[in-house]
Each structure stands twice: as C-alpha cells, then as structure tokens.
Amino acid sequence: MNQDKTALLHLNDENITKESFIDSVQLQEPDMVAYTAFTHQFEFVKQSSSWLKESSYTKPIICGGVHTTVDPEDAINVPGIDMICIGEGEEALLELCERIRKGQDYHDVNNLWIKKGNEIIKNPVRPLLQELDKLPFLDKDIYDIRNIADGTMGLLSTIATRGCPFQCSYCCNHQYQRIYKGKGTYVRFRSPENVIEELEINKKKYPYLRYVELLDDTFLIKEEWVKEFCEKYKKRIAMPFRANAHVNFINENVLTFLKNAGCERLALGIESGNEKLRQDVLNRHMTNDRILEAFRLCKKYEIEVISYNMVGIPFETLENTLETIKLNAQINPKSVHVSICQPYPYTRLFDICKENNFIQDKAVSTFFGNSVINQPSISKEETLLAYKYFAPYVKIYSILMSLPPVGGVLMKFLDYIYCKKNLHGFLMKIYPVSLFISCPILSTYRIMLSHFPHFTRNLKRKFWKRY
Q: From the CB of residue 287, how many other CB atoms can be counted at a distance below 10 Å?
C-alpha cells in the first residue's frame, strides 16, 4: 500500500466469510491492520485476526478501542493480535506508523502493549491531549456514508468533547478516569468554533444529510460553552440537531439556547425508576422529582426527549421494573429505549455481580440479548418479560394516568397481571398481539423485519431519505 494511504474495511456484515475477508484485506496490501472494537464485538476481532494469521499476511495487527483499554490482558493474549493500544490512540498510532515507515524499533511507544517473542512489553499511557483543536477533523470520506446508518437516516455526526464527569457503574468512564489519573484533565472540550468549522465542511460535502447528531456522552456540561456553540450554530449551520444530556444539567437557560439553535431532540438516561437502585447500584445521583422536572422543561420548550432505561439490574425485582415503567409513563417521552442490564468486564457493575455470585464469566454479547446475570430477586424470564412489555406498558399507563379515577383502577389490574408469575407464560404467548395493539407501527416494523429483512431495511432507508 502507498505509505500515505489509509483504507477502511467496515465489518458490519455478520455473514462475512473467511475468504471474502482475507481477499478484502489483501486487495489493499496494507503495511498494518488496525481494529477497533467494543467488548461485544471483540469475538469477531479474535476470529478475523486468526484468519489473517492463517493466510499469507505477515504484517503487524493492532487492536484499540474500549475493550482493549478496559480488558487489555484479554486482548493482548489473542493469538492473531500483535499489539494493542490502551486509551486514546491518535498520537500513539501516528508515532507507531512513523517508526514503521522509517524502519525504527517501536517497542517503547507509549499506550502500546506489544508482543516480542514470548514477552509482552507493557508501555505506560501518555498524558491526555488537552488541546483537542489540534486534532484534524475526522475523515468521513473513507466511510460509505450513503449506505451506513448515518447516511440512511440523514445524520451528520460529530463529537465536541472527550470524557464524562460521572462514574456510572455500568459505563467505562470510571475505568478511563482511573487509567488516566494524574495524566491531565479528563473532561476536555473542543472550542465551539472548531466544531462549527468541521460541521460547515461536512455540510457542504454531504448536502443530502438532514440533521446533526452530537454524540458526546453528556453535551450540556458547560453552560457558557453551550451558549457560544448555539449562537454560532444558528448562524452558520442552521440544521436540526440532537444530543445526549444528563437530567442534572437541564435548566431553562440551556433549553433556551438549544431551542433557538434548532435542537429538536435530547436523549436522557433514567435507567431505573427506583431511586435506591439508581444511586446505590448504578451510581446515578438524581431524584425522580429532578427527572420529572427535566422532562417537563423539555416539553415546555418543545424539545423531544428519548428516555434510556434498563431492566435486570442487580438486586432489582419485577416490582422495581414496574416503577421504571410508571416513571416513563409519567414523563411520556417521545420514545423509550430499554435494554437488558449487562455487566461489562471490569466495570463497577461487573464487580458487584462477581461479589454476589451473580455471574460466572465475562461473556457479554449484546445489551439487547438475554441477561447473563443470575440473581434471586428477578429471574432471567422475568427480566425478559419486563424488556418485552416495557414499551406497551408505558404506552398504556401514560393513557390511563390521564383518565382518573377509572385509569387508576385499570392500572392496579394491570399491575396484578404484570406481577403474577403464573401468568407470565400466557403474557409471553400473547406478546405479539399486545405489542400490535399498543404500538402498531413498531409491531408492524418488527414483523416485516423478521420475514422480509432486506425489503424492510430498504423501505426504511427510502422513508428516511424522503422525510
């Protein structure tokens, strides 16, 4: 490969074969293959890197990303991987490539763990880059924008910050904070001007993209930063945009800035409707009253809100999941996002599960699959019931809450059905009907996706492009 050229192989097809993968790599003739992966994607990294080692490919293979950072021993011991990158990789990868280009030894590059014979050299992490504006803008040209999720949904994405000030037990941020302790300020910001310049470039380059998504963990950390960004955004970008936020940062000032700039949607994490579980297990310090107020304010400013929730949390009961459902029914978000709680390796949540013998190993494949947690307070079957019936119950309860006193009586009846264990088998059998009655559009989409996946995905793409 030309030493100044970079190519991307986007491994988004679960049906990719050994032969097609090796052919795709060899076509590029790379001097190095670099992976990035989350924990639930890492099994495919293991498989495909072993395919390369079995082929005629002999150049270095490196893996970076969240999994290698939080579980480096697992990553470096994969036979097909020669080295891993821990933490942020821009400077480390650049230094590695420069040394390979010059034929120099690279075994002492900071952030890298490198195999050398039977030895593993474990270099320390370098200080965090504090001035994010020095980084070049992401090269989106190497992606097939029109045919990946961003393009099909008309989404122009960017990240304005790095790091999160919170330490939620299920997230990797508290691990990153530990790894980078004493290595510089963890939460950093690009300047508003720098973010706007990137958006201006990509808006011209991809005029078919219809709205901006800010992918920061928590976008509203600094109110003055948000104000300056929104003022520039309104004048120079003027596209609808969406962002992630924390309910503790929602107030009238920031919502005024956001609304004036064209913010159409915020995503807010609730996770559990039980305050004790939320605080003691998930380490999320916010009250139900604060959640209700944040959602009320968003509705006042006509900004749509998505709520993020979990079921199957350690020590949770089926009744606790009903608390989460009812809290969502009270706030009545634009849409609810629910996942099954999964303890990723070396998070505090993982430690809690290990300490209480709730899990036996580190296997987590997806946060939408069945729970890997075995606990006495809620069974896997009850967790699956709560996951399946979450959206239908939120929809029904939100209607009943507006119909007192009849609604209250009907809610008590639904509570009884939901919590009556000997009815769970029946509820799971009639789930398709229940979903169709309460959420007909979602139900129809899922049915079509299961029977006609390619047609349904193409139809969805056309819908997004049109609307």
A: 13
The residue ranges of DSSP E strands in 71-187, in sequence order, are: 83-85, 112-116, 119-122, 155-158, 161-162
The pLDDT assigned to 354 comes to 93
**Which residues are within 8 A (CB) of 387 and not within 5 positions of it... i.e. 6 or more apart?**
311, 312, 338, 339, 340
Q: Which fold has domain 132-415?
A: pyruvate-formate lyase- activating enzyme (3.80.30)
Instruction: Work out the number of other CB atoms within 10 angstroms of the CB of residue 133.
Output: 11
Q: In 3D, which of 191, 180, 262 has the Cα closest to residue 222?
A: 191
CATH of domain 18-122: 3.40.50.280
| Residue 228 CB-half CA count within 13 A | 12
Across the range 404-412, mean pLDDT stands at 93
Neighbours of 271 (CB within 10 A): 23
Domain extents in the chain: 18-122, 132-415, 430-467
DSSP for 414-459, please give it: HHHHHH-GGGHHHHHHTHHHHHHHH-HHHHHHHHHHHH-HHHHHHH
Least Cα distance to 205 among 149, 143, 153 occurs for 143
pLDDT tens for each residue of 167-222: 999 999 999 999 999 999 999 999 999 999 999 999 999 998 899 999 999 999 99
Q: Residue 113 pLDDT > 90, yes or no?
A: yes
Q: pTM of this prediction?
A: 0.90
Mean pLDDT of 39-45: 88
User: Does residue 327 contact residue 288 with C-beta atoms inside 8 Å?
Assistant: yes
Question: How far, CA to CA in Å, does 130 sit from each of 172, 184, 250, 374?
Answer: 20, 7, 27, 42
233, two tokens = 């955004």
Helix residue spans in 155-222 (DSSP H): 173-179, 192-205
